[in-house]
Design a protein that fits this description.
Length: 250
């Protein structure tokens, strides 16, 4: 029997989704790139039944740009309910969702609250699943630097940081999706752990940005209070292979 699979990628045109799609296509799997442009909408349920018919796995890397907690929880909750319902009806073997390390401990942040709603909805659905919780991406360092900038300086939370490259995230999602459902959570992080300040200073320096970088224990993470290990795995985890220096060279 062929080992090739049909995999549906929700959010398949985004940063992670496009990389997941390429990896699956390169391995000759059948891929459905789910997007509203193709008449597939997880939030409304439109087109889902047809999209998941015959699928072995669904990888959900969908996203929404919002700072509103209600909008975020509704988007992630409704989308996950619609997806898992359609998957169960179609006999899909495995639902994989990308979330964030320690989302449950950072729920004071609206986005984290949305991801926690997503996780809880999937876990309660009865559909076999795996939740992959990743740390922040190398690709987000520029946005993080700008978000913590004021008056020509960068002041970040005084916490540990362990970012991961999007390529490593995509590779792990594909490997997990083609494997057996864990019916639980897997943590995923980059290969290096240091202070948030160290990573931002390294990134700023590599970009020739002269802004000074410092850490302040009084600074939170986008509305969520944090302690030293709030953004890094606290137990067993999968470690990516791409360092910040290697990523900066690409």
């Amino acid at each position: 029997m062929s080992k090739l699979k049909k995999v549906v990628v929700i959010g398949g045109t985004g940063l992670i989704g496009s990389k997941v799609v390429k990896l699956l296509e390169d391995a000759n799997h059948e891929v459905v790139v789910a997007s509203t442009r193709k008449g597939i909408n997880a939030f409304t349920g439109e087109g889902l039944a047809q999209a998941v018919t015959g699928a072995d796995a669904v990888i959900d890397v969908s996203n929404i740009m919002s700072f509103d907690k209600q909008a975020l929880t509704e988007f992630f909750g409704n989308s996950s309910r619609n997806l898992t319902s359609a998957e169960k009806a179609a006999g899909v073997r495995h639902h994989v969702v990308l979330s964030i390390v320690n989302a449950d401990g950072l729920a004071a942040n609206p986005y984290m609250a949305g991801k926690l709603e997503q996780e809880e909805t999937v876990a309660a659905s009865g559909q076999p699943y795996t939740i992959v919780r990743a740390t922040q991406f190398h690709e987000f360092l520029e946005a993080l630097t700008d978000a913590y900038s004021a008056d020509g300086a960068v002041k970040v939370p005084d916490i540990d940081f362990q970012p991961i490259a999007a390529d490593d995230v995509a590779a792990t999602l594909v490997e997990v999706a083609l494997g057996a459902p864990k019916n639980g959570t897997i943590d995923l992080s980059g290969p290096e752990r240091a202070s948030f300040e160290t990573f931002i200073r390294t990134y700023v320096g590599a970009k020739g940005d002269g802004r000074p970088v410092s850490a302040d224990a009084g600074v939170n993470y986008f509305g969520a209070p944090v302690v030293t290990r709030s953004l890094v795995p606290t137990g067993n985890y999968i470690k990516g292979g791409i360092t910040l220096a290697q990523w900066l060279e690409t």
